Amino acid sequence: MWSQREVVDYALQRRHTLEALRRSVRTLSRGDVCDADPLLVRAAMHHGEPTDPDCPVCGSKHMVVLNYVFGDQLGQYSGRIKSSAELDSMQSEFGEFKVCVVEVCPDCGWNHMTHSYLLGDGVKRRPPRRQRTVEDIYG
Ligand SMILES: [Zn+2]
Q: By three-state DSSP, how is residue 110 classified?
């Protein structure tokens, strides 16, 4: 991604969580870390992109990553999941937005934000005009 900047890596927090899980099953149970919301798991199955490492908890090969986008300039699209291809074209359509990358294991429910970063061409724009959604029409 040519416009990628301000990358924040959450690998340390991820390692702490995993170490705590291994160290003491009593204080931190698998249920505490593998707490993916059913909606998150469903999103992972539909929109997730395969990722290399196996699940650090159950060893599953089905781990995926989801890219959540946030930003004032995105308007109603802030908070949505976008594919890498969509991010690629969005960087020249928006001045600045944040991408939060979350890894999800659909098998055991492990989920963790691995890193976040900013994308965008730096040109400030007004958010796109709000589009009517299915919810607006059918309430
Ligand atoms: Zn797993």
A: coil
Structure tokens at 114: 């691995």
Q: How many Å lie between the centroid of ligand 1 and the Cα of residue 67? A: 19
CA distances from 11 to 1, 25, 72 (A): 20, 21, 27
Distance 134 CA to ligand 1 centre (A): 34
**DSSP symbol at 73:** G
Sequence-distant (≥ 6) Cβ neighbours of residue 95 within 8 angstroms: 73, 120, 121, 122, 123, 124, 125
pLDDT digit string, tens, across residues 3-42: 999 999 999 999 999 988 887 655 666 666 777 788 888 9
Q: What's the pLDDT tens digit per position in 66-91?
A: 999 999 999 988 999 999 999 999 99
Could you give the CA distance from residue 27 to residue 90 in angstroms, rounded to a whole number? Answer: 43
| Ligand 1 centroid distance, CA of 38 (Å) | 14
